[in-house]
Amino acid sequence: MDKLEQYRTFIKQLIQEYGNYCPSYRGGEVDIESIFDTEHDHYQLVNVGWHNKKWIHSCFLHIDIKNGKIWIQHNGTEDDIADDLVKKGIPKEDIVLGFQAPNHRQYSDFSVN
Structure pTM? Predict the structure, then answer.
């Protein structure tokens, strides 16, 4: 399996694992949706539905693959997604914390771009 396919597989597994968690909205009809756009390499986990007469639509995990690297665009979980990816064997130099300002990325152990 080439690197790109391996990264896609790892990201899908990670999103499916987090998607198995129950939503924090009790008493409502809120679904967790896994979105896999393998053509453009965009992967998201979103909440969507109704809770107490309020419409809920929020992305709590967004990961892209750009130029052969995994970009964590948003992490609304309590966990360290980058660390989860490293544990799956992805080198830190292939992970970008996209949610951090570009001038701050140099202070992390991960790639700057």
Answer: 0.91
Question: Mind listing the domains of the chain with CATH numbers?
Answer: 3-107 (3.30.310.110)
Phi, psi of 91 (to 5 degrees): -65, 145
Q: How far is CA 81 from CA 30, 43, 49, 101, in A?
A: 23, 13, 25, 18
Which residue in this structure is represented by tokens 């140099």? 106
Compute CA distances 36 → 5, 15, 16, 33, 64, whole Å: 13, 9, 10, 10, 10
**Tens digits of per-residue pLDDT, 68-79?**
999 999 999 999
Q: First CA to last CA across the chain, in angstroms?
A: 24
